[in-house]
Specification:
Blueprint lengths: L1 E4 L10 H12 L5 E4 H10 L8 H8 L1 H8 L8 H20 L3 E3 L4 E3 L7 H9 L7 H14 L4 E5 L3 H17 L4 E5 L1 H8 L13 E2 L5 H7 L26 E4 L2 E2 L10 H4 L5 E2 L2 H15 L3 E4 L6 H9 L6 E5 L8 H9 L2 E9 L3 H7 L5 H14 L2 E8 L6 H13 L6 E6 L2 E2 L9 E4 L8 E5 L6 H12 L3 H8 L14
Parallel strand pairs: 1-2, 1-5, 5-6, 6-7, 8-11, 11-12, 12-13, 13-14, 14-15
Antiparallel strand pairs: 3-4, 9-10, 16-18, 17-18
Helix pairs in contact: 3-5, 4-5, 6-8, 7-8, 12-13, 13-14, 14-16, 17-18
């Protein structure tokens, strides 16, 4: 089996899904090859030559290799201005290269001005006209190389984000033309969202043979007619040791799938009813130790929706050999100042925390299970322990108005010394949310594959008003502005631990 991670995603660390699938298949005696076509394709684009006239573009193209090397050097991250300049210049090269193909191309997004990732018709068109894709010279050659070494009866695509969809279908179009006998498999987060929609009707007959929702390990074994022997196979990153744009290898690891809380309104984990599976803590400790020997990472990235208290305790008792970070809930465990110091001693360098709102009624309406007094204590404890915080806020939910948003502003201002980074988002209503029945909804974007619904805000707090509040009030607060200026451009939380 050949498993592909297609463009475009942030090129800072290897994709976890192919590594987990490969490790599981190999643990069951199955041959598996993985290929990160995102990072490989990126280097192809960055080596393209273009005729540019403005000073910035000339500088960016001239210094491309120097800027890549800078982003792979830890010293760059000690100077925020230097870091931001290197990111901007590399990104500028991609912008210019993309113009020829009528793309808005960046280090974090792929937007086609002519086709939409939300339209099945446009995705089919991308497959039919695969030779027009910007990555075609690369992927046509790369597939020939991969399939000449091993025939691979099955080719799987890990399709997690909208930014990957058009390129994925272009690759499928090529494979259908050049290798029509191959079986094409789709899995990943975006595919799971498609399949969880009650209105889903497969529009890709003839292009995609098999769709898999959720974890793919067991369905792939069933497809290969192999009886499962283990649930917790260690991921295999041996085929993914590429030169990513980070100061050293970042090791992605998941100590659980799904979410142990799984009660938040509007969350895909709830609407898609993804099951929660927790890896035994001792297995996580042993895997991290072994993987660190195999990959020599600079940093461990825990991918859990929220790292469990059991895993936190295990990491404190048996610290990984390198620093680590991940998502956490505002749990009582973190209200223990001593435990937070122990967490820092275990190598925890940053925690990502979904606060969403600074108004208790809004949080209760969302069923977040967050108490603001507890959150305040957690932020203070993490600050005192030396653990950076990346706090996520969500504006425009059905229970919020300007008055509640002002309370969020006040909460963040009051805790600005304890908040290292901020992520600001405007609420999108998932197409499969149970709350759709309680709201007046309409199409969010044109396209039969839209994953969100537009809605009439029950309290008149529409998206335009939310944006104006964020731009004119929230971001203008001096304490908050200082936090936002620290945010790594494009790479955001993936590079934040290095800053």
């Amino acid at each position: 089996m050949l498993i592909i991670h297609p463009p475009l995603t942030k090129p800072c660390e290897p994709p976890a899904a192919p590594a987990y699938l490969s490790g599981h298949l190999q643990a069951h005696g199955q041959t598996c090859t993985v290929c990160d076509m995102n990072i490989e394709g990126l280097y192809t684009l960055l080596n393209m030559q273009n005729s540019v006239k403005d000073t910035w573009s000339k500088r960016a193209f001239k210094n491309t290799q120097r800027n890549i090397a800078a982003l792979q050097n830890a010293q760059t991250y000690s100077n925020l201005d230097r870091y931001k300049r290197a990111v901007a210049d590399v990104n500028r090269v991609l912008e210019i290269v993309g113009h020829k193909y009528d793309l808005q191309l960046s280090l974090s997004n792929y937007h086609d001005n002519q086709r939409s990732s939300l339209s099945s018709g446009d995705l089919i068109s991308a497959a039919e006209e695969y030779e027009h894709n910007i990555y075609y010279p690369y992927f046509s050659r790369r597939f020939e190389e991969l399939l000449s070494v091993n025939s691979h009866d099955y080719i799987g695509f890990s399709l997690c984000y909208l930014s990957q969809a058009l390129c994925t279908f272009a690759m499928v179009g090529f494979l259908r033309k050049r290798y029509p006998q191959k079986k094409i498999i789709f899995g990943g987060g975006l595919v799971t969202t498609w399949l969880s929609n009650s209105d889903w009707q497969n529009p890709f007959t003839g292009l995609v043979d098999i769709f898999i929702a959720g974890k793919g390990e067991e369905p792939l074994l069933n497809l290969l007619q192999v009886a499962p022997k283990t649930v917790y196979a260690k991921p295999d990153y041996s085929g993914l040791m590429n030169r990513y744009l980070s100061p050293g290898f970042i090791l992605p690891y998941t100590s659980s799938t799904g979410c142990f809380w799984k009660k938040c309104n509007f969350c895909p984990e709830t609407s898609e009813d993804n099951p929660y599976l927790h890896v035994p803590s001792q297995t996580t400790v042993e895997n991290l130790r072994t993987l660190s020997i195999e990959t020599n990472p600079t940093l461990i990235h825990l991918l859990d929706n929220a790292v469990s208290p059991q895993t936190f305790r295990a990491l404190v008792e048996s610290p990984p050999p390198v620093p680590w970070y991940g998502f956490a809930r505002f749990e009582s465990l973190l209200a223990d100042a001593g435990f937070c110091h122990d967490l820092r001693a275990s190598g925890c360098t940053m925690l990502k925390l979904g606060l969403e709102s600074g108004d208790q009624k809004v949080l209760d309406n969302m069923n977040k299970g967050i108490d603001l007094e507890l959150a305040s204590k957690v932020l203070a404890n993490l600050k005192n322990a030396g653990i950076a915080t990346y706090v996520y806020l969500l504006f425009g939910t059905p229970a919020e108005t300007l008055a509640e948003a002002e309370k969020t502003l006040k909460f963040v201002e009051d805790h600005s010394q304890a908040i290292s980074f901020l992520n600001l988002a405007i609420f999108n209503l998932p197409v499969g949310s149970t709350e759709v029945a309680n709201l007046e909804v309409s199409s969010f974007y044109e396209g039969d594959l839209s994953i969100y619904r537009n809605f009439t805000h029950p309290r008149g707090w529409d998206r335009g008003e939310v944006r104006r509040f964020l731009d004119s009030r929230f971001k203008k607060s001096p304490g908050i502005s200082r936090i936002l200026q620290r945010d790594p451009p494009l790479f955001t939380s993936n590079h934040a631990p290095f800053l």
